[in-house]
Structures are given as C-alpha cells and as structure tokens.
Amino acid sequence: MAKLTVTTAIAACALMGGAVAASADENATLIVNGEIEMVTRTAAPDHVPLGEIRSGWTFRTGETQALQMDDFDNPGMIFVDQAIDAWNTVEGSAEKSCASCHEDVETSMEGVRAVYPKWNEDAGELRTLAMQINDCRESQMGAEPYGYTSADMTAMEALISVQSRGMPVNVAIDGPAAPYWEMGKEIYYTRYGQLELSCANCHEDNYDNMIRADHLSQGQINGFPTYRLKNAKLNQVQDRFKGCVRDTRGETFSPGGPEFIALELYVASRGNGLSVEGPSVRN
Amino acid sequence: MKHLSNMIAAAGLAVLGASAGHAAETAPGAVSHDEYGGVATSLTGAPGDPARGAEIMTSRGLGNCIACHQVSALSHAPWHGEVGPPLDGAGDRWTEADLRGIVVNSKMVFDGTIMPAYYKVSGFTRPGDLYTGKAAPADLPPVLTAQQVEDVVAFLLTLKD
Fold first, then answer.
1. Beta bridge partners of A41
2. Which of A224, A241, B89, B147 has the most Cβ atoms closer than 10 angstroms to its Cβ?
3. How far is B31 from chain A, CA to nearest CA, in Å?
4. What is the pTM of this model?
C-alpha cells in the first residue's frame, strides 16, 4: 500500500513536470552568443493555415533552450568544427577542396541555407542543400558523394547553416518550384501507415499538445540540422521525416528520394520568416 | 473405435479453440458497425479482462491509448497525452457497443478522427511492418487482437464517474 502511494506520487510529479515543462519559456527570446537575435515566433506566411508560426525551440524546456543560446554549450557546434576541416580537405580526382572554389566559408556561404531547397536552372531540378553538396563533390571535385543522411553530410550542412544563422528562411515556391511544392503539400496532408496519421494531424492540428511524453511542435525545419539529446547526434532533416513516418506504423520514403525532396521544400516554406537556427538543440 | 476417439479428440479441440477465442472470433474485415458506428457483438464471445485491458492501454507497443488520452485510473503509468479527450467516465457516457466500435475503428463513430483504428487490416496508405519503417507483410495483423479489443472495452466500461 505504501509502495503504491509512492509510485502514484512519482507518476503525479512526472505528469506535473510535463505540464510545467510544456508551458515554460514559450515566450522566451532566443539570442545566441548574446548577439544573434532569432525570430522564433512570427506571422504565418499566406500559404500556411496557422495564425503564427513557431520554431521548435519555443516548445522545448528551459534547460534544452539554454543549450542553444551559447555555442560553447551547443553540442552541435562540435560537428561544425569537424566540417571546417572537411571544407579545407582536398579530395577526389580533381584534387580540390570546397575551399578551392568557395574560399572563405563565412562569406561564400552566407545566406545559402535560407533559400534551400532551391530550383537549379542548369540542372533543371529542385535541389536540397544535401544534393548541392554532393553535386559539388561529384562534378567539381571528382570525389565520392556523401551518404544522404551521413554524419559527414549532416556536419557539412551544419557548417553551411551557421553562416545564415539569424537570417529569415525564404524558400521560393513559385515558378519551376511550384509542382514540387504541390507534391510536398499533398504528402504533408496524407494519412500514412497503419495508424493513419498525417504530418498535419500532429504538427498542425495538435501542436502544443502533449502526445505521451512529447510536447508536439509545429514540426518546423528552420533549426536543421538538429542536435538531439535523445540520440546524442546531429540529425539530418530527411532522417527526421523518416522517423516521423515510421512512427505512423508506415512504410517510409527514402531520404534523397523525390517524395522527401518535395516534402522538404513544402515544410521549409511553412517556416518562411523564422530564422535559420542550425545547428539547433532539441530533445 | 479408433475413428470415434479421433472424432472426440477433434471435438474437444474445437471447444478448446472456442474458449481460447479463436473459433468464434470475428475477423477484422467481417465486423459490422451499426448506424452510429457501434459494434454490438463481442469479437470473441469470451468476456474481456479489464486488468489486461489496462495494461494494453498503457503499453507503448500495444494500445498506447494514454499517448493521447488522460485516464485517472491509469495514473500509475507516466505521461498521459492531451490529443484526445480524457476518458474518465467513458463507461457512463457510452454503451458497450459504442466503445467496441470506437476501439475497432473510431472513424466509424467520429468522422475523420485522428484516433487510429485498432482492429482493421486494409485501406491504409503505405502501411508498415510495426515500427520498422519497412513495408507491411501481405497478411498485416490488426494493431490489437480480437481478445485485446475485448479486454480494452471491458476496462473502459469500468470508467464510471
């Protein structure tokens, strides 16, 4: 009997903790290193049926939020440092590094993250940042492509994202990007898997609600790549999509495949106006 | 003589099968819902066990109902979600048939609801093999077995205000 009371008390605490954590600090402001001011809440773009769009950061607990406020505390920054080495490393038959063509990453990559996925006129395709990185590796360097969601790829994306931190996400959805955007939108609202759940079911209809121990966010991708405390690594955006479709008891799509490329454009566009945060910290 | 004992053995097996909930079980595709979505007949003919129902509702790999619903009687299990309404008093608000219909396929009761169907095996888009992300096998089983549905219904009926 005594034991029962204790476990019940613990469960009650856990529940209350969840409720408190859920509501704490959602109006906090995110300023990184005391200088980069992030827009974490703003009016939704016209094509998004939400009053306000919110960064995933606003849904996290105060402790998790704090980890992103200083680069010394942000575990994702370790991977940025690793990618600086990769940026300067000569690889492939052309005997070039990224730096051979782009020189200083801070100036050449400023603003790049904010506008990807982006239509590439010469190739006649919509390109994610990962696709562009691999195109450079293959066509310019004569090097092996990175695995689409590999640690090397994710770190390089983090390095490139850092150069746009604080700038508003601003992906184009008109012109040649429009059919991809439509396809992505359709995927976003399709109820997949044996549990018949769409992205919208969780991230549009139920954001700010708890689903078991998780505080549902709007599933925005302005913070990618994301360092997750749960798996202690940097996570590539399409790996996250894969995990969410898997959780519907669904058959996922492949990272780098046409469905997730279209979905990435669509989800990115739902965050137009939020700041680029990558690498962000989430749980 | 030998023939007869075989027949008796077979009859015995059939009875055993029925009491274990197999012979009389209604297959997922064969469940009939009334006009409000309720399912009047037990899926197994065997009574549900509310204690097992409670375990199914809190277990992540089974019903995981508390992922979305708050249930005071299950407060020993941590983390109750808020995607669906609290289930306290559900046994007063709904009949047994309604509750069975909601667990079998809630979309027959609440049009377009986010709540998953627990005893259904077809009509999905890209169904997977549990939580592997891989394609579902051709003979995809329902999320809960017929007897597990009955166990959950039996538990829900105990939720009185």
1. A54
2. A224
3. 18
4. 0.91
